[in-house]
Amino acid sequence: MASDTIPAKGTEAAADVLDARGVTMRFGGLTAVRDVDLTVAQGEIVGLIGPNGAGKTTLFNCMTGLYTPTEGTVSYKGTVLPNRSHEVTKAGIARTFQNIRLFANMTVLENVLVGRHTRTREGLWSALLRGPGFKRAEATSEARAMELLEFTGLAAKRDHLARNLPYGEQRKLEIARALASQPGLLLLDEPTAGMNPQETRATRELVFAVRDQGISVLVIEHDMRFIFGLCDRVAVLVQGEKLVEGTPDVVQSDDRVVAAYLGTPFEGVPEDEAVDEVAAAENAAAKTARSGSTTETNKEGDA
Ligand SMILES: Nc1ncnc2c1ncn2[C@@H]1O[C@H](COP(=O)(O)OP(=O)(O)OP(=O)(O)O)[C@@H](O)[C@H]1O
């Protein structure tokens, strides 16, 4: 177990479920991820953010056995993970994908049942072909799958084909299917992409509910409001390297994060100077327009 690993920042005594150390992933001459350490503690929700191409999905792929890191290790509950994705799922890590990967022509219920195959003795093909072994286990599996559909709010759609679900519900179904493997850690890759604000809020509540069931969560997302309202801790990846890590408050107020997201290099220019420049320009514009205008343009009022 991970009792002697370094406690995750901000969570003091909580044991790490995930411990990625020195993970580097190279594709030929391109280093997509460089020497990244990342932990997720028991019961923690951790966000992974960064501009497009920063290496977030590559890091997920290294954590789920899709890629074998060029260097470094990924451990789950103190054991180094195998580099086969189905064995990683079996070990206790489940994930969703940036581009939804459902069985489009299977029903909602069948999609969740397939997600259970790592936890049944019958295996994927038996589940798909509905062989005799599968039928024996079917009642238990179906009950569990229905629980998950209730949990994600999809129970009424159990017999709908996955491809007919609205986009937001397809993303929920991906989460239900991932939960069917009974993970200890859930990795979500852009779970709110393409969602409207109501769906995004519902997803946040769903992730909190997942955590309340004792499942730790690592989530990639570009929606900063979602991330900062959801996560206990956030790590920022830029050009493959971890730039900043900390609580949402710490990360949001870090100039390097702002610079990375605005795409402007951080050069250590004193923030006050920029603010003064803007205030001076506003004052000059206000003076020019002064005579005919009733609009108050400058709250500070000093030049
Ligand atoms: N299989 C691959 N072969 C070669 N290069 C790859 C491969 N996968 C990713 N890359 C490259 O690695 C870099 C990181 O990509 P990655 O998809 O991990 O970024 P990301 O942070 O997830 O981006 P986004 O937010 O746009 O999804 C990119 O330059 C990408 O082109």
Describe the structure in brief:
The chain is α/β, with parallel strands linked by helices. It is built from 11 helices and 10 strands. The chain is globular, with a radius of gyration of 23 Å.
List keywords for this structure.
Rossmann fold; 303 residues; 3 domains; 11 helices; disordered N terminus; binds adenosine-5'-triphosphate; alpha/beta; six-stranded mixed beta sheet
Structure in words:
It is a single chain. With 303 residues, the chain is of the alpha/beta class. The chain has three domains: 175 residues, P-loop containing nucleotide triphosphate hydrolases (Rossmann fold, 3-Layer(aba) Sandwich); 90 residues, Rossmann fold; 32 residues, no CATH class. Helix content is 39%, strand content 20%. The strands form two sheets. A six-stranded mixed beta sheet has the order 6-7-8-3-9-10, with helices on both faces. The protein has a four-stranded antiparallel beta sheet with strand order 2-1-4-5, with helices on one face. A hairpin with a 2-residue loop joins strand 1 and strand 2. The longest helix has 21 residues. The chain is globular. The chain starts with 15 loop residues before the first strand and ends in a 14-residue tail after the last helix. The N terminus and C terminus are likely disordered. Adenosine-5'-triphosphate binds next to strand 2 and helix 1. Adenosine-5'-triphosphate (ATP) binds next to strand 2 and helix 1.
